[in-house]
Amino acid sequence: MVRKEVVRILRIWSQTLLPPVVTMSLYFIVFGGFIGSQVANIDGFSYMQYIVPGLVMMSIITGAYMNTVSMVYFAKWQHVIDEILVSPMPSWAVIAGYASGGLVRAFLIGILVTGVSLFFTHLVVFNLLILFGAAFLTALIFSLAGIVNAIYAKSFDGISIVPSFVLTPLTYLGGVFYSISLLPPFFAKLSLANPILYMVNAFRYGFLGVTDVAISHCFYVMGAFTVVLVVWVLVLFKVGVGLKR
Fold this sequence. Notes:
Layout: H1 2-11, H2 13-16, H3 18-35, H4 47-77, H5 80-85, H6 91-117, H7 128-152, H8 158-172, H9 185-191, H10 195-208, H11 215-239
Helix pairs in contact: 1-6, 3-4, 3-6, 4-6, 4-7, 4-8, 4-10, 6-7, 7-10, 7-11, 10-11
């Protein structure tokens, strides 16, 4: 399953890898270049440097989520998943296979977007372990979340509702383009309820060494979401909700 996913991602790279790179390049040009030149430094870094980790994380989130939600839903729609479920392969292996595809796509996109960002600004890596850990856990969380969405979805519209009305707003309000220290106290505290804030800040800490929340809290939140989603997906496969006919 992993080999199939990797081959598919690379075979249709113009659909899986190129669009997010182009989109993030536009963000770098518009927000970092045009608008960023008029914005004061944040935590000692230029606006462009500050938003790059957030934009890379946004591309990782989108890549991981869209890969698994589309693959699992189409496997349901084409009844491919029926054959997988009756095979001797255990549920955890099926889940790991789909999630691995999301991880591969997310990391490839993240590397490409980071490479493109170097044409616009200079980046340093403050802590490689935290950087990799934040990227891995975030990609895993949204790979699993994509599986959950695909299992419950009953139509093509069902796989677009969550990205459009939940994922996109939370991402834009998750500290990608700003520090919550710049917000009024009420909205700064309200932002702490957004789980993506912790993922973005952990990733930004890995790059720049600055964060709006304690780095330990970031990993507590990501760890908790990972455990909940792993259990949730395992239960769904065991019960057969949305899968077994």
